[in-house]
Amino acid sequence: MKKNLKSKVALIVAVLAICVYGIFGVPSGFTGKDLTEAVAKRIHLGLDLRGGAHLILQVEVKEAVNAETDNTVGRIQQDLKTANLSFTQVFKPYPLTRPDDPTAKPEVIRLEGTTQAQASSVRSTLDTKYSNEYDLAGGGADNTWTLTMKPTIETALEKKTVQQAIEAIRDRVDSLGVSEPLIQEYGLGDYQILVELPGIDDLDRVKSIIQSTARLEIHAVVGGPYKDEAEAAASVGGVVPSDQVMVHGSGALATGSDADSVYILQRVSVVAGSDFRSADPGTDQNGLRNVRFTLTNEAGDKFYEYTSANVGRAMAVVMGGRVREVANIKSAIRDSGQIDGSFTADEVTILSKMLRTGALPASLNYLEDRTVGASLGADSIKQGVTAAIVGILVVMAFMLVYYRGSGINADLALFLNLVILLGFMGASGATLTLPGIAGVILTIGMGVDSNVLIFERIREEVRAGKAAAAAVDQGFAHAWVTIVDTHVTTIVSAAILFLFGSGPVKGFAVTLTIGLAANLFTAVFVSRVIFDAHLNKLKPGELVSI
Amino acid sequence: MEFFRSVNVDWLGKKWYFLAFSLIFSIAGVVSMGMHWTQIGSPVPLSVDFRGGTQVQVQFAQAPDEDKIRQATAAAGIKDARIQPIQDVGASGGNEVLISLPEQHDETSLDQGREQIVNALHAHYGNPFVVRNVMVVGPTVGKQLEKQAGLATLYSMLGMLVYLWFRFQLIYGVAAVVACFHDTLITVGFFALTNQEISLTVIAAILTLVGYSMNDTIVVFDRIRENLRLSRRETLPDVVNRSINQTLSRTVLTSGLTFLTVLSLYVFGGQVLRGFSFALVVGILIGTYSSIAVAAPMLVAWQEWRASKGKTVVLPASKRGRV
To answer: How far from each other are the two terminal CA atoms of chain B, in whole angstroms?
Structure first.
């Protein structure tokens, strides 16, 4: 019996130690200030306690679908011309005039005016090129064909648009130097993005940055890379002509060094950021890595002219005023092409990302924004902690007075409960919000319920004449069923809150659940151990102090 | 120390008093909600979370004058601004005001409200100020949130019903859910009566007290079930009375202690959590009351109704037993 007790106590001490570590980490010192700092590093505060900005954005994904079908219209026209098939027009019968137009169906394309004689050629042309993405219908006597984007393709495109928007926003937010920004899909609606930026007070600047287009351009390379500006100037005879410009870049990735180099580029860009529709890493037929991209229609035409005239020359990707990448033009490119070079997997990913995020794939609308000032956050913490401390003291005092010796038991269990709760939150990186602090306070009140249940039962058993050990035994045995029932129902409540709630409410659900789970451990296991330890010391016939 | 050494109250005998008490508060609540509905279109005042619009929390250097603020916003052309001073045992020194604009019907001008208010105060009201908190909610998100809150409440109740059906019997589950519904109705009624706003955190508080009231009811039901198993000769009303008396000390103690902690939250916890803590303060009191006054009598009433119809009484301790 005694040996069993020792191992149980060891377990409890171990749990205590782990949780203390969870709260404090390894503090640099033991003064009050050092400990507060250590806690601040471990416990992750929510936006309502830290202060900051919270935005919800709607991604107008229909615009991306619209752009894609615009592209396809151009390609169909081109393909039919190349195959010498006549038609009157290719157009979209339900175009997207406004982003939130519910009657628009940008995924439908109509082809009119083919001839009966060429019908089967038209069908086979359209089939071979577009049947992967579009469902083809028509071709009857009215010489009208309808292509509708397949729902799976459409959904995939819409989801990809949201991901691209998230990446673009992330890049732009990075430039603000915000620590721990949160950018993710917002679960409550379709194609909505949640952005949380702690510490940001000036919302206007943030909003304009997120919605702006980053400057990304492609310029023709005249010469480079050169070691420095003097060398670059020397290569064009001392003075850079007015239609060219010197631009720095860090180390031509082709040379593999990181040193700063200078290029001479044509001043006027061939393609600018908003002309890119998408960019993805890929491999060419030799297994070398490249970046495949697509441009918008008008940009495609311009690009075609430029590239056909410049096969074999280099072009530079310039972003934020610096050369990021140089690549060779292998062949004329219209609107989809690839950028080759001896890239590593990393470089290809980075380049694709730059090209993708340089352009916002669809416009973003603000649905909601909240700013919590840091001073309000600090006040909230102070008030929440005060309420918690008052609550704890009141409960502890009452338990001591009402249950005497066993009250100490309950207070120890309560204290351990809190330590486990905070330790778990610190260790798991869960976010503490203001409702979360309320959840801690609620856990105190509900946690002590278990102790009350057990103690009342023990009192009943003692009143019925049982000896100390038997009374404790029966008390725990009977109360156990009820404790499980009550905890499960409240945890079910909390789980539903977690699923359906927003940030602060989720924080509440988390602290409540962890608190109750910790309570199951402390009220039953730890309390029992303390009772057993106490019982071992009792002389026979002596009563439990309860 | 012991408060409830041997209690022997006939709870079921008092059921008509309980019914009257519950009815008074329920009806008062419903009437108040009806009045709110005609005035503002929703049964209780809703916070910005749900109704959408702009809300700016401003702290002034000197005590703010509501009328002057109203004049300032009117001078800048802002219509329908609502001005509400905040009473807070606050740490930061008071002088705070909430200025709200009503909802927009689309999202295009979402941000203008905030700028307008700030500019109006700068231009027409000389008191220096600091913006502490801004909430701008478009109608789309507000509606989504309403739907979520509604679904969450529904699923919560359903989940409880299923759990209780599984652990006890259907009638126990129904009685407990009716008690919870009663608690929610009266709590929301109190919000209508005191003209307080319901925000998302308040909904969280209401769901928590649903769980808490369930808790309480289960403790009583557990004891009823245990006593039914042990005694085969007592009538159901006697068993129920005895069970309530036996659990009374635990019920009052726990509710009392939880109530004290929540009261501490209401007094010290600050303005942001005010609605949340109010819901819990009211809810815990009502939740405890309902386990004794609503759930238990319902059980007995059900059995008596079935007996009066001559059907076999099916309220055993477990599914296999028989009373």
So the answer is: 38
Which position has the higher pLDDT, B123 or B189? B189
Q: Which fold has domain B53-137?
A: Alpha-Beta Plaits (3.30.70)
Q: Are B282 and B25 in contact (CB under 8 A)?
A: no
Report the percent of chain B where pLDDT is more than 90: 9
Total-model pTM: 0.74
Residue with tokens 């962890």: A514
pLDDT value, residue B321: 34
Residue of A445, A496, A500 with shortest CB distance to B258: A445
Is beta strand A276-283 parallel, antiparallel or unpaired with respect to B53-60?
unpaired
Closest CA to A167 of A386, A414, A359: A359
Phi and psi at B100, nearest 5°, equal -120, 145
Domain A216-363, classified CATH 3.80.10.10, yes or no: no
> What is the tens place of the pLDDT at every residue in A384-396?
888 888 988 999 9
Token pair for B93:
């020194």
Domain boundary assignment for chain B: 12-41+142-308, 53-137
Dist CA A504 CA B310 (whole Å): 53
**Residue ranges of domains in chain A:** 2-48+373-537, 52-165+181-194, 216-363
Phi (first) and psi of residue A464, to 5 degrees: -75, -5
Give the CA distances from residue B209 to residues A103, A391, B280, B287, in Å, rounded to whole numbers and listed in that order. Answer: 45, 18, 7, 7
Looking from the CA of B115 toward its CB, the CA atoms found within 13 Å total 7
Alpha-carbon distance B119 to B112, whole Å? 10
Nearest chain A Cα distance for residue B241, angstroms = 17
Which residue from A423, A458, A463, A461 is spatially nearest to A440, judged by alpha carbons?
A423
Contact yes or no for A496 and B152 at CB 8 A: yes
Question: A254-268, A382-396, A476-490, B308-322: which has the minimum mean pLDDT?
Answer: B308-322
Q: What is the CATH code for B12-41+142-308?
A: 1.20.1640.10
Q: Count CB-CB contacts under 10 A for residue A542.
A: 11
pLDDT in tens, A30-83: 777 777 777 777 788 888 888 888 888 888 888 778 777 877 887 787 788 888
Output the CA–CA distances (angstroms, integers) from residue A419 to A35, A218, A344, in the order listed: 15, 58, 49
Percent of the residues in chain B that have a pLDDT greater than 70, as a whole number: 89
Q: How far is B317 from chain A (nearest CA, A)?
A: 15
Distance from CA of B261 to the nearest CA of A (A): 4
- Asked if pLDDT for residue B244 goes beyond 50, the answer is yes
Q: Give chain B's count of helices (H) and strands (E).
A: 10, 4
- Partners of B55 in the β-ladder: B100, B135
pLDDT class of A369 with cuts at 50, 70, 90: confident
Interface of B with A in 98-127 (CB under 8 A): 107, 110-111, 115
Cα–Cα distance, A244 to A256 (Å, whole number): 25
Q: Which of residues 276-305 of A touch B (CB under 8 A)?
A: none
- Phi (first) and psi of residue A262, to 5 degrees: -120, 140
The most distant pair of C-alpha atoms in chain A lies apart, rounded to whole Å, by 110
Alpha-carbon distance values, A367 to B78, B144, B196, B290 (Å):
21, 11, 25, 41
A151: preceding bond cis by omega (within 30 degrees): no
Q: Does B227 touch chain A (CB under 8 A)?
A: no
The pLDDT, as a whole number, for residue A274 is 62
